[in-house]
Design brief:
This protein has 148 residues and is of the alpha/beta class. It is built from 5 helices and 6 strands, in the order H-E-H-H-E-E-H-E-H-E-E. Helix 4 crosses helix 5.
Length: 148
């Protein structure tokens, strides 16, 4: 899911994207899969070879959350495990700039609960962004942490 979100951000929105996963092998696999999908789109005439290369250049990868310190927007897309999400958001709240938007792709955990993990000073920067699978062909439905 995360790499699909990254691909759409890099390809459609033309944003520079940093993909983070603790497992370097998983990152390599996902980057290779994304390249294969893009190459398929080139073959089908949906995009040009230049579009493919430019999209891939906009995606960088890391195994460290610390490398997200200067980003303006984070989309978390880990498994639906509260303890995992809580730890990530607590770390992101300490690592990122106070103005950074912290989004979760959760489908079952309350955004208000996630906002509570970052503390009151950052709670207004936490949002939910529910992506549908596969991200590359589905629409995004955003919602705010402040809604009840």
């Amino acid at each position: 899911m995360g790499m699909g979100i990254a691909q759409v951000a890099a390809q459609v929105a033309k944003l520079d994207v940093v993909v983070m996963d603790a497992n370097a092998d998983q990152i390599k696999k996902q980057l290779a899969f994304t390249e294969k999908l893009l190459e398929g789109n080139v073959t089908k005439g949906k995009i040009t070879a230049q579009d493919k290369e430019e999209t891939l250049k906009r995606i960088s990868a890391t195994t460290s959350l610390d490398d997200l310190a200067s980003v303006d927007f984070v989309v978390e897309a880990v498994k639906e495990d509260w303890k995992v999400k809580e730890a990530i958001f607590k770390n992101l709240a300490q690592i990122t700039k106070p103005s950074t938007i912290l989004a979760s792709n959760t489908s079952s955990i309350s955004i208000t609960k996630i906002a509570g993990a970052v503390g009151p000073a950052r709670a207004d920067k936490v949002i939910g962004m529910h992506f549908m699978n596969p991200v590359r062909v589905r629409y995004l439905l955003p919602f705010s942490a402040m809604q009840t």
